[in-house]
Write a structure and sequence with these properties.
The complex is a heterodimer of chains A (168) and B (485).
Chain A (H helix, E strand, L loop, with lengths): L5 H20 E5 L3 H4 L11 E6 L13 E5 L6 E9 L3 E5 L2 E4 L2 E2 L14 E5 L4 E5 L10 H4 L2 E2 L3 E5 L9
Antiparallel strand pairs in A: 1-2, 2-11, 3-4, 3-11, 4-9, 5-6, 5-8, 6-7, 9-10
Chain B lengths: L1 H7 L1 H43 L4 H12 L4 H14 L4 H17 L3 H16 L7 H14 L6 H10 L3 H7 L10 H17 L5 H11 L28 H17 L6 H18 L17 H17 L3 H14 L4 H17 L5 H22 L6 H17 L3 H14 L4 H14 L3 H13 L5 H21 L1
Helix pairs in contact in B: 1-2, 2-3, 3-4, 4-5, 4-6, 5-6, 6-7, 6-8, 7-8, 8-9, 8-10, 9-10, 10-11, 10-12, 11-12, 12-14, 13-14, 14-15, 14-16, 15-16, 16-17, 17-18, 18-19, 20-21, 21-22
């Protein structure tokens, strides 16, 4: 092997290693279930595909606020998509339709249809749990308002949060 | 041939021996890895089934995991938790859970095993009459003493205090927010026991706590609708597993009654916001139609309990002066238990109060609400007919219906209804004349009122004095009017 080809071999090996790492941790998830999608429209459209991080390789510290998570709901095991609003140890409260995390109102350009009558008492998210809410809140409350915080173990995939649109 | 030649040479024999040894070690390692992967995969599957509440399959998988790992306490802890969660009032499953936790404790005395042992003993104590609880509670006390200041132990200590009928002590143990390092189950139990203690001490904040507790406690969803009548099953088949989900519904019902319908449960100014929170929170649990709804979406509630919850919300709204909201809540109660006349009558009362609260200038809206009230009275009347012991309520309903019709500018409908009911439920003549006279009085038809009152007085009705007074008042009013003219 000529000396000048070594860098190319190294780059090739690094690329292969990177691909292996990526394939191990990420999976292309297709969103086709209308029932599941009703919660996070229009951020996630029917039939779209996104790279989801396999939660089996994640610890609670790797999941952050505002990321989308696909998880199995407690009690029923139904697969659902929602947005992480608070992680373990944070305080969440819903007052007059506004979500407050650690006492501060959360700015939610993605949130649709929160009613001013919506309220939930303050709750400290327990260890190893996430507080999730649907983006579409008007018609369906099938999220942590209904079934409480979800254990991180119930999360299947984590999706990067899109930059929220800034309304002028 | 080659092997034989190689073995003749000591160096070659050594190499072959080494190769065989390496091969054997590799095979053993591969077999061990395969076994491990299979075992881990089965454990992961069992773990997922346990968390997802996959009834039947979780039990089988966890059982296999326990048999596979005789010295590992984890499968016993998981299976124990699974059995305890679903034991309901079934003593056999509770005994199985107790055995599993004791086995886990025997293998490795950990905090999880101790908590499991305490939980199953508390559950067993709940299912026994109070006088037979002492030995179990003493055992729990001993276990908790060993646990010390574990953050998950506080709700258990409070549970023990509640079972010993010391709710104030339980509330003291659960003061403030739960510790941050407490698990989801412990935080759920924290709010659950605080709600129970608040119900016992008639604290109006019990409903908020109960709603939080329901969110946080991961009740397993039953495969069957617990409201459904049990079908005749094959005696060889085990019965459907009971579920603790009904406990959640019962606590919510009790807390709603304490927080909203109990006059001694807090200051009146707190009642309005509490009613709003209750309506928002409970509509997520009960759909107001007595239906189960989507799996896991609504509480698979007993229609009677659901009706009681909405009735409590309605009573709270009436006390807070929120009459339209009260009507909606009573309507939900009526739909949940359509056979009970009380909810229809409460709905009628709420609509009547709503109409009376409106200014006189809004005459059309008032009339509409009075007619809605009369419709609700009619519903109550239909359900009261034929109920033994409710005759007085029936006649009161007739009366209220007629008055609501008159207030709704339909006096003819009201009077006709009274006359029609007389054919089915006749009262004595004096009473009939007194009632019709009073209805005419309500329509401001003084002439007819006097005619009927005089007939009633002539028949010796017990209210004769009051009727005479009313006649005199009317005649004085007429005379005054005449003088002005």
């Amino acid at each position: 092997m000529q000396g000048e080809s070594l860098p190319f071999v190294a780059i090739g090996a690094a690329l292969i290693a990177g691909c292996v790492w990526f394939v191990q941790r990420y999976e292309l998830v297709r969103f086709a279930d209308k029932d599941e999608l009703q919660f996070c429209k229009p951020d996630v459209k029917e039939g779209t595909q996104r790279f989801g991080r396999d939660a089996a390789y994640l610890t609670p510290a790797d999941i952050h606020q505002l990321q989308l998570v696909q998880f199995r709901t407690p009690r029923t095991g139904r697969v659902t998509l929602s947005r992480v609003i608070a992680v373990e140890g944070q305080r969440v409260e819903i007052k007059a339709g506004k979500v407050h995390v650690d006492g501060e109102e959360l700015r939610e350009p993605y949130g649709k249809g929160m009613s001013v009558t919506d309220q939930a008492p303050e709750l400290v998210v327990p260890m190893g749990c996430l507080y999730v809410l649907n983006d579409v809140r008007q018609f369906d409350r099938y999220d942590s308002r209904a079934f409480g915080p979800i254990p991180v173990g119930a999360v299947m995939y984590v999706f990067a949060a899109k930059e929220p649109e800034v309304t002028r | 041939m080659i092997t034989a030649e190689t073995l003749k040479d000591p160096k070659g024999a050594g190499l072959v021996g080494g190769g065989v040894a390496v091969l054997l070690i590799t095979a053993l390692l591969a077999w061990n890895t395969f076994q491990r992967v299979t075992s881990e995969s089965a454990a992961a599957e069992a773990w997922l089934a346990f968390h997802n509440g996959d009834d039947g399959q979780a039990r089988t998988l966890l059982g296999a995991m326990r048999d596979d790992r005789p010295l590992d306490p984890l499968p016993r802890l998981l299976l124990g938790a699974y059995e305890a969660d679903r034991s309901g009032d079934d003593p056999a499953r509770l005994a199985a859970a107790t055995r599993l936790f004791d086995e886990a404790w025997g293998l490795e005395p950990s905090a999880s095993a101790a908590i499991g042992r305490a939980v199953v003993r508390l559950r067993a104590a709940v299912s026994k009459p109070p006088e037979q609880r002492a030995p179990l509670l003493a055992e729990v006390d001993e276990i908790l003493r060993q646990l010390g200041d574990d953050p998950d132990a506080a709700p258990l200590k409070a549970g023990l205090a509640i079972l010993r009928n010391k709710p104030d002590e339980a509330r003291k143990l659960l003061e403030g927010a739960p510790p941050v390092e407490a698990s989801l189950q412990a935080v759920g139990a924290w709010h659950w026991n605080r709600a129970a203690a608040m119900c016992m001490t008639r604290d109006g904040r019990a409903l908020d706590e109960a709603m939080l507790a329901y969110q946080l406690r991961q009740f397993p969803e039953p495969d069957v609708d617990p409201r459904a009548k049990p079908e005749p099953t094959d005696p060889a088949q085990p019965p459907a597993p009971p579920s603790t989900i009904l406990d959640g519904q019962r606590l919510l019902t009790l807390a709603a009654r304490v927080a909203l319908a109990d006059p001694g449960s807090g200051k009146p100014e707190e009642l309005g916001p509490r009613c709003d929170r209750a309506r928002a929170g409970l509509s997520m649990r009960f759909n107001g139609k007595g239906k189960v709804g989507g799996r896991g979406r609504y509480l698979p509630s007993d229609g009677q309990d659901e009706a009681a919850v909405w009735n409590a919300v309605g009573l709270g709204c009436v006390r807070a002066g929120k009459f339209p909201e009260a009507s909606v809540a009573f309507e939900a109660a009526r739909k949940a238990n359509d056979k009970e006349p009380l909810y229809a009558l409460n709905m009628a009362e709420a609509r009547r109060l709503e109409a009376e609260a409106l200014p006189v200038a809004q005459a059309k809206e008032r009339q509409r609400l009075f007619m809605l009230a009369s419709g609700a009275y009619q519903l109550g009347f239909d359900r009261l007919v034929g109920k033994p012991g409710r005759e007085e309520a029936l006649m009161n309903t007739v009366w209220n219906l007629c008055v609501a019709c008159i207030d709704g500018s339909n006096p003819r409908v009201g009077l006709n209804f009274y006359s029609n009911t007389q054919t089915k439920f006749p009262v004595d003549e004096a009473q009939r004349n007194r009632d019709i006279g009073a209805l005419f009085d309500h329509t401001r038809n003084g002439g007819e009122m006097i005619r009927y009152f005089e007939k009633a007085i002539a028949k010796g009705h017990p209210d004769s004095a009051a009727m005479q007074k009313r006649i005199r008042q009317y005649q004085a009013y007429q005379a005054g009017q005449g003088r002005r003219r």
